[in-house]
Design a protein that fits this description.
Strand content: 5-15%
Largest sheet: 2 strands, parallel
Number of helices: 4
Helix content: 40-55%
Distance between the termini: 14 Å
Strand order of the largest sheet: 1-2
Oligomer: single chain
Shape: globular
Structural class: mainly alpha
Number of strands: 2
Radius of gyration: 15 Å
Length: about 110
């Protein structure tokens, strides 16, 4: 899949209700699908992902500049998708499941 998703499921967090995120989504034809306030079980998958992202990336680093943050998050994204074993898919990486040849994902 290339391009942007048609819909992104988000919660009511301040990072998702900002005008900037709304404008970004609108300009790219992406619909922001908000879960019900106070109902994290509406999207347990993303809640689990957010917890891992916070624990393994955001809480693990100091971000000195926006460029530094982008670089560290891209490094984590590649690790998460290309190296890190995921128990839900038999302790293999998502790239292995999606592509038996193990090709890496394209750069941002």
């Amino acid at each position: 899949m290339i391009g942007y998703p048609k819909t992104i499921r988000v919660d009511q967090g301040s990072e998702f209700i900002s005008r900037d995120v709304d404008l970004w989504a609108y300009q790219r034809g992406v619909t922001l699908d908000f879960s019900r306030p106070g109902k994290p079980t509406d999207n347990a998958f993303i809640e689990a992902f957010n917890g891992r992202f916070r624990a393994e990336c955001l809480n693990a680093h100091w971000f000195l500049t926006l460029a530094d943050a982008r670089e560290k998050m891209e490094t984590w994204r590649r690790y998460y998708n290309e190296e890190r074993p995921h128990s839900a898919i038999g302790n293999i990486s998502p790239i292995t499941l999606a592509n038996a040849a193990g090709d890496t994902s394209p750069p941002c």
